TrEMBL record:
One of its GO terms (molecular function) is 3-hydroxybutyrate dehydrogenase activity. It comes from Beijerinckia indica subsp. indica (strain ATCC 9039 / DSM 1715 / NCIMB 8712). This is 3-hydroxybutyrate dehydrogenase. InterPro entries: 3-OHbutyrate_DH, NAD(P)-bd_dom_sf, Sc_DH/Rdtase_CS, SDR, SDR_fam. GO terms for biological process: monocarboxylic acid metabolic process.
Amino acid sequence: SLKSRNALVTGSTSGIGLAIARTFAREGANVTINGFGDAAAIETERAAIEKEFGVKAFYSDADMTKPEAIRAMVKEAKERLGSLDILVNNAGIQHVSPIEDFPLEKWDQIIAINLSAAFHGIAAAIPGMKARHWGRIISTASAHSLVASPFKSAYVSAKHGIVGLTQTAALELATSGITVNCISPGYVWTPLVEKQIPDTMKARNLSRDEVINNVILAAQPTKQFVTADQVASLALYLCSDAAAQITGSNLVIDGGWTAA
Ligand code: NAD
């Protein structure tokens, strides 16, 4: 159970992050959700978490491209509830394009959201976790932290970087009661995947069905999408006492993708 734990999940207005926030709340944690989207829809989601699970839920609109906003979000989450015990760096975006055409601003944005945001969040969360001798830091990496795909240079670079950051932080915090790990999902059906289909159709000159079956699911030997709830269950496990000796790890949940 995560009763009396306080968690912050970045990029949790949708997809994997929302599943993680809801799973933590179901287990009794108070949660701060974060991310973009329709304000009314976000408020509905936040209120639903409180009502369904009987926990406190807050929302931060911090933009993960802005270091000061990230650090302020972590500080606020901690001050509101007295501690921040669990940080999940999950916000992420994708852009699909050959390197020679890859827009500079997209490269910078992906490195900022998918990599640097985790650095800022971790840096801000460490002092409070150290003081309480307990903490769980989890980042959503990707199968693309281990292998590449063409046309995803920024994403693959950022996700490989998350593994290095995770390992470094794990070593620095090894005797502090804080574990630092990342989770590497294969393809999960979320808006992030749906949105890259048109560009992948263009980059590879394929139809929508061909992209889903011959590109996306072709990578996954099980021929099935991973579900957001399955990723959330793994994140929950990392928060348990049973996982206290798992640190500096990259846990893969990818339907066999990186075994192939
Ligand atoms: P999603 O698009 O459903 O969710 C992304 C979340 O990040 C949303 O809440 C969005 O509002 C938020 N976000 C985007 N830019 C932001 C910014 N600048 N500041 C704050 N929040 C921002 O996508 P998802 O698939 O759930 O992705 C979540 C994470 O999982 C990402 O890090 C992604 O790389 C990773 N991942 C996804 C898959 C997959 O197949 N879907 C596979 C492996 C890893």
